[in-house]
Write a structure and sequence with these properties.
Strand content: 5-15%
Strand order of the largest sheet: 11-10-9-5-4-3-13-12
Distance between the termini: 30 Å
Largest sheet: 8 strands, parallel
Number of helices: 15
Number of domains: 3
Shape: globular
CATH topology of the largest domain: TIM Barrel
Number of strands: 20
Structural class: alpha/beta
Helix content: 25-40%
CATH superfamily of the largest domain: Glycosidases
Amino acid sequence: MTSFQPAEPGTIDGARAPWWRSAVVYEVYLRSFADGDGDGVGDLAGLRSRLDHLADLGVDAVWITPWYPSPMADGGYDVSDYRDIDPRYGTLADADALLAAAHDRGLRVVVDLVANHTSVEHPWFRAALAAGPGSPERARYFFRDGRDGGESPPNDWISAFGGRAWTRVTEPDGRPGQWYLHLFAPQQPDLDWENPQVQADFDDILRFWFDRGVDGVRVDAAPAMAKEAGLPDAGHGPGAVFDSARWVGNPHWDVDGVHEVLRRWRRLADAHGDRLIVTESVVNGPERLARYVRPDEAHTTFNFDYLHAPWDGPTLRAVVDATLATLEPHGAPATWVFSSHDETRHVTRFGRAETGVALMGTGSTGEPTDLALGLRRARAAVLLTLALPGGVYLYQGEELGLPEVEDLPEEVLQDPTWERSGRTVRGRDGCRVPLPWSGTRPPFGFGPDGSVPWLPQPATWAALTAEAQRADPGSTLSLYRSALHLRRRRAELHEAPLTWVDDLAGRPGVLAFDRGPAFRCLVNLSAEPLPLAGHGRVLLASGPGDGALAPDTAVWLDRG
Protein backbone atom coordinates (compact mmCIF):
# COMPACT_ATOMS: atom_id res chain seq x y z
CA MET A 1 0.00 0.00 0.00
CA THR A 2 1.31 3.46 -0.87
CA SER A 3 2.32 5.53 2.13
CA PHE A 4 0.13 8.56 2.75
CA GLN A 5 1.45 12.10 2.54
CA PRO A 6 -0.73 15.11 3.35
CA ALA A 7 -1.56 17.44 0.51
CA GLU A 8 0.71 20.32 -0.34
CA PRO A 9 -1.47 23.34 0.33
CA GLY A 10 0.35 25.77 -1.92
CA THR A 11 0.97 29.40 -1.10
CA ILE A 12 -0.84 32.73 -0.87
CA ASP A 13 1.32 35.82 -1.35
CA GLY A 14 4.38 33.72 -0.60
CA ALA A 15 3.02 32.26 2.66
CA ARG A 16 1.91 28.68 3.24
CA ALA A 17 -1.82 28.41 2.58
CA PRO A 18 -4.22 26.85 5.12
CA TRP A 19 -4.93 23.16 4.52
CA TRP A 20 -8.60 23.67 3.77
CA ARG A 21 -8.08 25.93 0.75
CA SER A 22 -7.43 23.01 -1.60
CA ALA A 23 -8.26 19.96 0.53
CA VAL A 24 -10.15 16.95 -0.78
CA VAL A 25 -12.65 16.02 1.94
CA TYR A 26 -14.36 12.62 1.96
CA GLU A 27 -17.87 12.53 3.40
CA VAL A 28 -18.57 9.55 5.67
CA TYR A 29 -22.28 8.91 6.19
CA LEU A 30 -21.53 7.02 9.37
CA ARG A 31 -24.51 4.64 9.42
CA SER A 32 -23.55 3.32 6.00
CA PHE A 33 -19.75 3.33 5.89
CA ALA A 34 -18.60 0.26 7.85
CA ASP A 35 -20.14 -1.80 10.65
CA GLY A 36 -17.64 -2.92 13.28
CA ASP A 37 -19.94 -4.78 15.67
CA GLY A 38 -22.35 -6.59 13.35
CA ASP A 39 -25.57 -4.83 14.34
CA GLY A 40 -26.20 -3.67 10.76
CA VAL A 41 -25.33 -0.03 11.44
CA GLY A 42 -22.04 1.65 10.61
CA ASP A 43 -20.01 2.86 13.56
CA LEU A 44 -16.74 4.42 14.69
CA ALA A 45 -14.97 1.07 14.99
CA GLY A 46 -15.92 0.30 11.41
CA LEU A 47 -14.71 3.69 10.20
CA ARG A 48 -11.45 3.31 12.08
CA SER A 49 -10.90 -0.09 10.45
CA ARG A 50 -11.22 1.48 6.99
CA LEU A 51 -9.03 4.57 7.46
CA ASP A 52 -6.26 2.97 5.42
CA HIS A 53 -8.64 2.88 2.45
CA LEU A 54 -9.11 6.63 2.74
CA ALA A 55 -5.43 7.34 3.26
CA ASP A 56 -4.46 5.20 0.28
CA LEU A 57 -7.21 6.80 -1.81
CA GLY A 58 -5.46 10.12 -1.29
CA VAL A 59 -8.00 12.35 0.44
CA ASP A 60 -6.92 14.98 2.95
CA ALA A 61 -9.78 15.00 5.45
CA VAL A 62 -12.88 13.11 6.53
CA TRP A 63 -16.23 14.76 7.20
CA ILE A 64 -18.37 12.60 9.50
CA THR A 65 -22.13 13.04 9.57
CA PRO A 66 -23.68 13.46 13.05
CA TRP A 67 -22.33 10.97 15.58
CA TYR A 68 -24.24 12.37 18.56
CA PRO A 69 -26.96 10.57 20.54
CA SER A 70 -30.19 10.80 18.54
CA PRO A 71 -33.62 9.15 18.21
CA MET A 72 -32.80 9.02 14.46
CA ALA A 73 -35.96 10.73 13.25
CA ASP A 74 -33.75 12.27 10.54
CA GLY A 75 -30.68 10.07 10.36
CA GLY A 76 -28.95 11.70 13.31
CA TYR A 77 -29.71 15.31 12.37
CA ASP A 78 -32.01 15.37 15.40
CA VAL A 79 -29.51 15.63 18.25
CA SER A 80 -30.36 14.84 21.88
CA ASP A 81 -26.86 15.44 23.34
CA TYR A 82 -24.14 17.49 21.63
CA ARG A 83 -21.31 16.34 23.91
CA ASP A 84 -21.50 12.56 23.52
CA ILE A 85 -21.51 9.75 20.94
CA ASP A 86 -24.59 7.73 20.08
CA PRO A 87 -24.20 4.24 21.63
CA ARG A 88 -24.97 2.71 18.23
CA TYR A 89 -21.77 4.32 16.96
CA GLY A 90 -19.55 3.87 20.00
CA THR A 91 -18.29 6.01 22.87
CA LEU A 92 -16.31 9.17 23.43
CA ALA A 93 -13.27 6.94 23.88
CA ASP A 94 -13.92 5.50 20.41
CA ALA A 95 -14.13 9.04 19.02
CA ASP A 96 -10.81 9.93 20.64
CA ALA A 97 -9.22 6.78 19.23
CA LEU A 98 -10.58 7.57 15.78
CA LEU A 99 -9.22 11.12 15.89
CA ALA A 100 -5.79 9.83 16.90
CA ALA A 101 -5.79 7.14 14.21
CA ALA A 102 -6.87 9.60 11.52
CA HIS A 103 -4.25 12.14 12.54
CA ASP A 104 -1.59 9.41 12.52
CA ARG A 105 -2.43 8.91 8.83
CA GLY A 106 -2.37 12.61 8.05
CA LEU A 107 -6.15 12.79 7.80
CA ARG A 108 -8.03 15.69 9.38
CA VAL A 109 -11.51 15.17 10.81
CA VAL A 110 -14.52 17.47 10.33
CA VAL A 111 -17.77 16.78 12.18
CA ASP A 112 -21.32 17.95 11.62
CA LEU A 113 -22.68 20.76 13.79
CA VAL A 114 -26.49 20.70 13.79
CA ALA A 115 -27.25 24.05 15.37
CA ASN A 116 -30.54 25.18 13.83
CA HIS A 117 -32.54 22.58 15.72
CA THR A 118 -32.33 19.88 18.37
CA SER A 119 -34.24 16.67 18.87
CA VAL A 120 -37.53 16.72 20.75
CA GLU A 121 -35.72 14.33 23.09
CA HIS A 122 -33.06 16.90 23.99
CA PRO A 123 -33.25 17.91 27.68
CA TRP A 124 -33.65 21.54 26.62
CA PHE A 125 -36.86 20.77 24.71
CA ARG A 126 -38.22 18.44 27.35
CA ALA A 127 -37.72 21.21 29.90
CA ALA A 128 -39.46 23.67 27.58
CA LEU A 129 -42.52 21.43 27.31
CA ALA A 130 -42.68 20.98 31.06
CA ALA A 131 -42.13 24.65 31.93
CA GLY A 132 -45.07 26.08 30.05
CA PRO A 133 -45.72 29.35 28.15
CA GLY A 134 -43.58 32.37 28.91
CA SER A 135 -40.82 30.40 30.62
CA PRO A 136 -37.07 30.88 30.04
CA GLU A 137 -36.96 27.23 28.94
CA ARG A 138 -39.38 27.90 26.09
CA ALA A 139 -37.41 31.00 25.11
CA ARG A 140 -34.67 28.72 23.74
CA TYR A 141 -37.09 27.72 20.97
CA PHE A 142 -39.88 29.35 18.95
CA PHE A 143 -43.03 28.68 20.96
CA ARG A 144 -45.92 30.89 19.88
CA ASP A 145 -49.64 31.12 20.38
CA GLY A 146 -51.69 30.07 17.38
CA ARG A 147 -54.05 32.11 15.26
CA ASP A 148 -57.82 31.70 15.25
CA GLY A 149 -58.02 31.26 18.99
CA GLY A 150 -54.99 28.98 18.95
CA GLU A 151 -56.37 26.55 16.39
CA SER A 152 -54.19 27.61 13.44
CA PRO A 153 -50.39 27.86 13.15
CA PRO A 154 -48.82 31.23 14.00
CA ASN A 155 -47.84 31.87 10.35
CA ASP A 156 -47.65 30.24 6.91
CA TRP A 157 -44.11 28.87 7.11
CA ILE A 158 -43.45 25.44 5.59
CA SER A 159 -41.18 22.51 6.40
CA ALA A 160 -38.33 21.30 4.17
CA PHE A 161 -39.80 17.81 4.52
CA GLY A 162 -43.31 18.81 3.47
CA GLY A 163 -46.30 20.32 5.23
CA ARG A 164 -46.42 23.19 7.68
CA ALA A 165 -43.51 24.13 9.90
CA TRP A 166 -45.50 24.23 13.15
CA THR A 167 -46.72 21.58 15.58
CA ARG A 168 -49.09 22.19 18.47
CA VAL A 169 -48.21 20.88 21.92
CA THR A 170 -50.25 19.62 24.81
CA GLU A 171 -49.55 21.79 27.84
CA PRO A 172 -48.61 20.34 31.25
CA ASP A 173 -52.22 20.69 32.39
CA GLY A 174 -53.43 18.59 29.45
CA ARG A 175 -54.97 21.37 27.36
CA PRO A 176 -54.03 22.08 23.70
CA GLY A 177 -51.45 24.83 23.86
CA GLN A 178 -48.80 26.70 21.96
CA TRP A 179 -47.17 25.80 18.69
CA TYR A 180 -43.44 25.25 18.14
CA LEU A 181 -41.47 25.90 14.95
CA HIS A 182 -39.63 23.20 13.00
CA LEU A 183 -38.32 24.05 9.54
CA PHE A 184 -37.52 20.36 9.13
CA ALA A 185 -39.28 17.39 10.76
CA PRO A 186 -41.60 17.85 13.78
CA GLN A 187 -39.00 15.95 15.80
CA GLN A 188 -36.50 18.78 15.07
CA PRO A 189 -37.63 21.97 16.88
CA ASP A 190 -35.78 25.13 15.82
CA LEU A 191 -33.62 26.96 18.33
CA ASP A 192 -33.92 30.74 18.73
CA TRP A 193 -30.46 32.08 17.95
CA GLU A 194 -31.34 35.47 19.43
CA ASN A 195 -31.30 33.76 22.83
CA PRO A 196 -28.03 34.45 24.72
CA GLN A 197 -28.14 31.08 26.46
CA VAL A 198 -28.32 29.26 23.12
CA GLN A 199 -25.30 31.23 21.92
CA ALA A 200 -23.29 30.49 25.07
CA ASP A 201 -24.16 26.79 25.04
CA PHE A 202 -22.94 26.34 21.48
CA ASP A 203 -19.73 28.19 22.26
CA ASP A 204 -19.12 25.51 24.87
CA ILE A 205 -20.06 22.73 22.43
CA LEU A 206 -17.56 23.96 19.85
CA ARG A 207 -14.82 24.24 22.48
CA PHE A 208 -15.62 20.72 23.67
CA TRP A 209 -14.93 19.18 20.24
CA PHE A 210 -12.06 21.45 19.25
CA ASP A 211 -10.33 20.61 22.52
CA ARG A 212 -10.70 16.89 21.72
CA GLY A 213 -8.87 17.40 18.44
CA VAL A 214 -11.63 17.84 15.85
CA ASP A 215 -10.22 19.86 12.94
CA GLY A 216 -13.42 21.59 11.83
CA VAL A 217 -17.19 21.67 11.74
CA ARG A 218 -19.65 21.54 8.90
CA VAL A 219 -22.61 23.75 9.83
CA ASP A 220 -25.83 22.05 8.83
CA ALA A 221 -28.60 24.20 7.33
CA ALA A 222 -26.79 27.44 8.19
CA PRO A 223 -29.28 29.84 6.48
CA ALA A 224 -32.06 28.57 8.75
CA MET A 225 -30.46 29.85 11.95
CA ALA A 226 -31.95 33.34 11.80
CA LYS A 227 -35.58 34.40 11.47
CA GLU A 228 -37.06 37.80 10.75
CA ALA A 229 -38.28 39.59 13.86
CA GLY A 230 -41.96 39.07 14.48
CA LEU A 231 -42.06 35.88 12.36
CA PRO A 232 -44.16 37.40 9.54
CA ASP A 233 -45.87 35.34 6.88
CA ALA A 234 -43.62 34.27 4.00
CA GLY A 235 -46.36 34.31 1.38
CA HIS A 236 -46.30 30.55 0.82
CA GLY A 237 -49.36 29.50 -1.12
CA PRO A 238 -51.19 26.18 -0.89
CA GLY A 239 -48.91 23.29 -1.82
CA ALA A 240 -45.76 25.44 -1.76
CA VAL A 241 -42.47 23.54 -1.73
CA PHE A 242 -39.30 24.34 0.18
CA ASP A 243 -37.20 25.82 -2.63
CA SER A 244 -34.59 27.93 -0.84
CA ALA A 245 -32.35 28.25 -3.91
CA ARG A 246 -35.02 30.51 -5.45
CA TRP A 247 -36.14 32.49 -2.41
CA VAL A 248 -35.44 36.21 -2.05
CA GLY A 249 -36.32 38.07 1.15
CA ASN A 250 -37.75 34.99 2.84
CA PRO A 251 -38.36 35.59 6.59
CA HIS A 252 -37.20 32.11 7.66
CA TRP A 253 -34.21 31.51 5.38
CA ASP A 254 -30.99 33.42 4.66
CA VAL A 255 -31.91 36.20 7.09
CA ASP A 256 -29.02 38.57 7.85
CA GLY A 257 -28.79 37.60 11.52
CA VAL A 258 -27.14 34.29 10.63
CA HIS A 259 -23.93 36.13 9.83
CA GLU A 260 -23.54 37.28 13.42
CA VAL A 261 -23.59 33.63 14.50
CA LEU A 262 -20.90 32.75 11.96
CA ARG A 263 -18.73 35.66 13.08
CA ARG A 264 -18.98 34.45 16.67
CA TRP A 265 -17.92 30.95 15.67
CA ARG A 266 -15.11 32.19 13.44
CA ARG A 267 -13.56 34.03 16.39
CA LEU A 268 -13.80 30.88 18.47
CA ALA A 269 -12.32 28.67 15.71
CA ASP A 270 -9.43 31.07 15.13
CA ALA A 271 -8.66 30.98 18.85
CA HIS A 272 -8.16 27.21 18.56
CA GLY A 273 -5.69 27.38 15.69
CA ASP A 274 -6.12 25.88 12.24
CA ARG A 275 -9.80 24.92 12.56
CA LEU A 276 -12.28 24.92 9.65
CA ILE A 277 -15.83 26.22 9.51
CA VAL A 278 -17.69 25.14 6.36
CA THR A 279 -21.39 25.86 5.89
CA GLU A 280 -24.22 24.12 4.11
CA SER A 281 -25.98 27.13 2.62
CA VAL A 282 -28.55 26.56 -0.11
CA VAL A 283 -29.36 30.15 -1.09
CA ASN A 284 -30.32 32.19 -4.12
CA GLY A 285 -27.21 32.38 -6.29
CA PRO A 286 -23.47 32.86 -5.83
CA GLU A 287 -23.76 36.48 -4.64
CA ARG A 288 -25.82 35.45 -1.61
CA LEU A 289 -23.59 32.43 -1.05
CA ALA A 290 -20.44 34.56 -1.01
CA ARG A 291 -21.73 36.46 2.02
CA TYR A 292 -21.20 33.32 4.13
CA VAL A 293 -17.44 33.36 3.46
CA ARG A 294 -16.60 36.98 4.13
CA PRO A 295 -13.20 37.23 5.85
CA ASP A 296 -14.64 37.11 9.37
CA GLU A 297 -17.25 34.38 8.76
CA ALA A 298 -16.98 30.78 7.49
CA HIS A 299 -13.81 29.66 5.75
CA THR A 300 -15.66 27.82 2.97
CA THR A 301 -19.20 26.92 1.96
CA PHE A 302 -20.70 24.18 -0.15
CA ASN A 303 -21.33 25.06 -3.78
CA PHE A 304 -24.83 23.84 -4.59
CA ASP A 305 -25.00 25.55 -7.98
CA TYR A 306 -22.24 23.20 -9.13
CA LEU A 307 -23.79 20.16 -7.45
CA HIS A 308 -27.17 20.86 -9.03
CA ALA A 309 -25.84 21.68 -12.51
CA PRO A 310 -26.73 19.39 -15.42
CA TRP A 311 -24.09 17.64 -17.52
CA ASP A 312 -23.88 20.52 -19.95
CA GLY A 313 -20.73 22.36 -20.96
CA PRO A 314 -21.99 25.97 -21.12
CA THR A 315 -23.90 25.59 -17.83
CA LEU A 316 -20.94 24.11 -15.99
CA ARG A 317 -18.61 26.80 -17.32
CA ALA A 318 -21.04 29.53 -16.27
CA VAL A 319 -21.27 28.06 -12.76
CA VAL A 320 -17.48 27.85 -12.46
CA ASP A 321 -17.04 31.43 -13.65
CA ALA A 322 -19.76 32.82 -11.40
CA THR A 323 -18.45 30.91 -8.38
CA LEU A 324 -14.86 32.07 -8.78
CA ALA A 325 -15.84 35.64 -9.58
CA THR A 326 -18.09 36.08 -6.54
CA LEU A 327 -15.75 34.40 -4.05
CA GLU A 328 -12.57 36.14 -5.22
CA PRO A 329 -13.30 39.54 -3.58
CA HIS A 330 -13.62 37.78 -0.21
CA GLY A 331 -10.43 35.75 -0.67
CA ALA A 332 -12.36 32.52 -0.12
CA PRO A 333 -11.75 29.30 -2.06
CA ALA A 334 -14.48 27.52 -3.95
CA THR A 335 -15.70 24.03 -3.10
CA TRP A 336 -16.90 21.52 -5.68
CA VAL A 337 -19.12 18.47 -5.18
CA PHE A 338 -21.45 16.29 -7.26
CA SER A 339 -22.99 13.96 -4.64
CA SER A 340 -23.83 13.83 -0.94
CA HIS A 341 -26.07 12.03 1.54
CA ASP A 342 -28.87 14.44 0.53
CA GLU A 343 -28.65 14.09 -3.26
CA THR A 344 -29.25 11.45 -5.91
CA ARG A 345 -25.92 9.81 -6.74
CA HIS A 346 -24.56 11.43 -9.86
CA VAL A 347 -23.84 8.14 -11.66
CA THR A 348 -27.61 7.72 -11.80
CA ARG A 349 -28.68 11.27 -12.62
CA PHE A 350 -25.97 11.68 -15.28
CA GLY A 351 -27.52 8.71 -17.09
CA ARG A 352 -30.91 10.38 -17.42
CA ALA A 353 -32.27 12.69 -20.07
CA GLU A 354 -32.48 15.41 -17.40
CA THR A 355 -29.11 15.36 -15.66
CA GLY A 356 -29.65 18.10 -13.07
CA VAL A 357 -30.95 17.26 -9.61
CA ALA A 358 -34.55 17.43 -8.51
CA LEU A 359 -35.56 19.58 -5.55
CA MET A 360 -33.45 18.45 -2.55
CA GLY A 361 -32.31 15.48 -4.65
CA THR A 362 -34.98 13.35 -3.05
CA GLY A 363 -35.79 10.04 -4.57
CA SER A 364 -36.32 8.75 -8.07
CA THR A 365 -37.70 11.00 -10.78
CA GLY A 366 -39.17 8.01 -12.57
CA GLU A 367 -36.92 8.63 -15.56
CA PRO A 368 -35.05 5.65 -17.03
CA THR A 369 -31.32 5.68 -16.36
CA ASP A 370 -28.50 4.50 -18.62
CA LEU A 371 -25.99 3.55 -15.92
CA ALA A 372 -23.17 2.93 -18.41
CA LEU A 373 -23.59 6.47 -19.74
CA GLY A 374 -23.92 7.83 -16.21
CA LEU A 375 -20.72 6.15 -15.08
CA ARG A 376 -18.81 7.39 -18.12
CA ARG A 377 -19.90 10.94 -17.35
CA ALA A 378 -19.20 10.54 -13.62
CA ARG A 379 -15.64 9.40 -14.37
CA ALA A 380 -15.16 12.47 -16.55
CA ALA A 381 -16.73 14.65 -13.87
CA VAL A 382 -14.18 13.70 -11.21
CA LEU A 383 -11.29 14.80 -13.43
CA LEU A 384 -13.08 18.07 -14.15
CA THR A 385 -13.79 18.62 -10.46
CA LEU A 386 -10.34 17.76 -9.15
CA ALA A 387 -8.76 20.11 -11.69
CA LEU A 388 -10.73 23.17 -10.56
CA PRO A 389 -9.21 25.67 -8.11
CA GLY A 390 -10.30 25.26 -4.51
CA GLY A 391 -11.42 22.33 -2.38
CA VAL A 392 -13.39 19.21 -3.29
CA TYR A 393 -15.90 17.09 -1.36
CA LEU A 394 -16.36 13.44 -2.32
CA TYR A 395 -19.27 11.35 -1.10
CA GLN A 396 -18.56 7.86 0.16
CA GLY A 397 -18.91 5.22 -2.54
CA GLU A 398 -18.54 7.53 -5.50
CA GLU A 399 -14.96 6.24 -5.83
CA LEU A 400 -16.58 2.85 -6.47
CA GLY A 401 -18.96 4.22 -9.09
CA LEU A 402 -22.02 3.36 -7.00
CA PRO A 403 -25.42 4.23 -8.49
CA GLU A 404 -28.54 5.32 -6.62
CA VAL A 405 -30.58 2.38 -5.32
CA GLU A 406 -34.03 3.24 -6.65
CA ASP A 407 -35.90 0.02 -5.90
CA LEU A 408 -35.66 -0.16 -2.12
CA PRO A 409 -38.78 -1.85 -0.70
CA GLU A 410 -41.21 0.65 0.75
CA GLU A 411 -41.14 -1.06 4.13
CA VAL A 412 -37.43 -0.22 4.65
CA LEU A 413 -37.61 3.49 3.78
CA GLN A 414 -36.66 5.72 6.70
CA ASP A 415 -36.25 9.23 5.29
CA PRO A 416 -38.82 11.54 6.94
CA THR A 417 -39.78 12.89 3.52
CA TRP A 418 -41.46 9.55 2.77
CA GLU A 419 -44.06 9.90 5.52
CA ARG A 420 -44.30 13.72 5.40
CA SER A 421 -45.15 13.55 1.68
CA GLY A 422 -47.91 11.03 2.23
CA ARG A 423 -45.61 8.32 0.85
CA THR A 424 -45.34 9.98 -2.53
CA VAL A 425 -41.67 11.05 -2.38
CA ARG A 426 -39.29 8.20 -1.60
CA GLY A 427 -36.62 10.42 -0.08
CA ARG A 428 -32.86 10.12 0.21
CA ASP A 429 -32.40 6.52 1.35
CA GLY A 430 -31.31 5.45 -2.13
CA CYS A 431 -27.98 7.26 -1.80
CA ARG A 432 -27.44 6.00 1.76
CA VAL A 433 -27.28 2.25 1.16
CA PRO A 434 -24.30 0.71 3.05
CA LEU A 435 -21.04 0.41 1.14
CA PRO A 436 -19.80 -2.81 -0.49
CA TRP A 437 -16.24 -3.58 0.60
CA SER A 438 -15.60 -7.21 -0.33
CA GLY A 439 -17.11 -10.59 -1.13
CA THR A 440 -19.75 -11.73 -3.58
CA ARG A 441 -22.96 -11.31 -1.59
CA PRO A 442 -24.41 -9.02 1.07
CA PRO A 443 -23.28 -7.65 3.44
CA PHE A 444 -20.24 -7.32 1.12
CA GLY A 445 -17.87 -6.76 4.03
CA PHE A 446 -19.89 -3.83 5.37
CA GLY A 447 -20.27 -5.92 8.51
CA PRO A 448 -19.39 -9.45 9.58
CA ASP A 449 -20.74 -12.33 7.48
CA GLY A 450 -24.33 -13.02 8.45
CA SER A 451 -25.07 -9.47 9.59
CA VAL A 452 -27.95 -7.59 7.96
CA PRO A 453 -27.32 -3.96 6.92
CA TRP A 454 -29.92 -1.39 7.93
CA LEU A 455 -30.76 -0.87 4.24
CA PRO A 456 -30.49 -3.77 1.76
CA GLN A 457 -27.63 -3.80 -0.76
CA PRO A 458 -28.22 -4.79 -4.40
CA ALA A 459 -26.76 -8.16 -5.38
CA THR A 460 -25.28 -6.47 -8.46
CA TRP A 461 -22.85 -4.59 -6.22
CA ALA A 462 -20.61 -7.68 -6.11
CA ALA A 463 -18.75 -6.25 -9.12
CA LEU A 464 -18.38 -2.84 -7.45
CA THR A 465 -16.74 -3.75 -4.14
CA ALA A 466 -13.51 -2.05 -3.17
CA GLU A 467 -11.85 -5.46 -3.18
CA ALA A 468 -12.99 -6.23 -6.72
CA GLN A 469 -11.80 -2.88 -8.03
CA ARG A 470 -8.53 -2.44 -6.14
CA ALA A 471 -6.34 -4.51 -8.49
CA ASP A 472 -8.08 -3.41 -11.71
CA PRO A 473 -6.22 -0.47 -13.29
CA GLY A 474 -9.29 0.42 -15.32
CA SER A 475 -11.69 0.55 -12.37
CA THR A 476 -13.35 3.66 -11.07
CA LEU A 477 -11.51 3.19 -7.75
CA SER A 478 -8.18 3.17 -9.59
CA LEU A 479 -9.13 6.30 -11.52
CA TYR A 480 -10.00 8.19 -8.32
CA ARG A 481 -6.84 7.03 -6.59
CA SER A 482 -4.64 7.99 -9.54
CA ALA A 483 -6.30 11.39 -9.88
CA LEU A 484 -6.04 12.19 -6.16
CA HIS A 485 -2.38 11.24 -5.91
CA LEU A 486 -1.54 13.11 -9.10
CA ARG A 487 -3.43 16.15 -7.80
CA ARG A 488 -1.31 16.09 -4.67
CA ARG A 489 1.91 16.13 -6.68
CA ARG A 490 0.95 18.93 -9.08
CA ALA A 491 1.63 22.22 -7.33
CA GLU A 492 -0.35 24.21 -9.90
CA LEU A 493 -3.54 22.42 -8.81
CA HIS A 494 -3.10 24.06 -5.41
CA GLU A 495 -1.79 27.45 -6.50
CA ALA A 496 -2.39 28.45 -10.12
CA PRO A 497 -5.53 30.24 -11.34
CA LEU A 498 -7.84 28.77 -13.96
CA THR A 499 -7.48 30.04 -17.53
CA TRP A 500 -9.93 28.96 -20.21
CA VAL A 501 -8.38 27.84 -23.51
CA ASP A 502 -9.61 30.40 -26.02
CA ASP A 503 -9.04 28.38 -29.18
CA LEU A 504 -11.58 25.80 -27.96
CA ALA A 505 -14.01 28.30 -26.46
CA GLY A 506 -16.20 28.25 -29.55
CA ARG A 507 -16.56 24.49 -29.70
CA PRO A 508 -19.91 23.54 -28.14
CA GLY A 509 -19.75 20.96 -25.40
CA VAL A 510 -16.02 21.19 -24.72
CA LEU A 511 -14.53 22.53 -21.50
CA ALA A 512 -10.82 23.32 -21.80
CA PHE A 513 -8.73 25.14 -19.23
CA ASP A 514 -5.19 25.45 -17.97
CA ARG A 515 -3.85 25.63 -14.43
CA GLY A 516 -0.50 27.31 -14.94
CA PRO A 517 1.63 26.88 -18.08
CA ALA A 518 2.05 23.09 -17.89
CA PHE A 519 -1.30 21.58 -16.86
CA ARG A 520 -4.39 21.33 -19.07
CA CYS A 521 -7.79 19.72 -18.49
CA LEU A 522 -10.08 18.86 -21.40
CA VAL A 523 -13.64 17.60 -20.94
CA ASN A 524 -15.65 16.50 -23.95
CA LEU A 525 -19.38 16.84 -23.28
CA SER A 526 -20.19 16.84 -27.01
CA ALA A 527 -21.26 13.99 -29.26
CA GLU A 528 -18.07 14.03 -31.38
CA PRO A 529 -14.48 12.99 -30.57
CA LEU A 530 -12.01 15.78 -29.84
CA PRO A 531 -8.50 15.43 -31.37
CA LEU A 532 -5.78 15.66 -28.74
CA ALA A 533 -2.89 16.57 -31.02
CA GLY A 534 -1.09 19.68 -29.83
CA HIS A 535 -2.54 19.67 -26.33
CA GLY A 536 0.29 17.86 -24.55
CA ARG A 537 1.21 14.51 -23.03
CA VAL A 538 -1.65 12.54 -21.46
CA LEU A 539 -1.29 12.24 -17.70
CA LEU A 540 -4.63 10.61 -16.95
CA ALA A 541 -7.84 9.97 -18.87
CA SER A 542 -11.29 8.98 -17.62
CA GLY A 543 -11.79 6.55 -20.51
CA PRO A 544 -10.00 4.91 -23.42
CA GLY A 545 -8.86 6.91 -26.41
CA ASP A 546 -6.62 6.67 -29.42
CA GLY A 547 -5.35 10.15 -30.19
CA ALA A 548 -8.79 11.63 -29.56
CA LEU A 549 -10.99 12.40 -26.59
CA ALA A 550 -14.23 10.42 -26.85
CA PRO A 551 -17.60 11.94 -25.93
CA ASP A 552 -18.28 12.17 -22.19
CA THR A 553 -14.60 11.73 -21.39
CA ALA A 554 -12.01 13.94 -19.68
CA VAL A 555 -8.22 14.05 -19.76
CA TRP A 556 -5.37 15.70 -17.87
CA LEU A 557 -2.37 16.72 -19.97
CA ASP A 558 1.13 17.95 -19.30
CA ARG A 559 2.21 20.73 -21.67
CA GLY A 560 5.67 21.11 -20.16
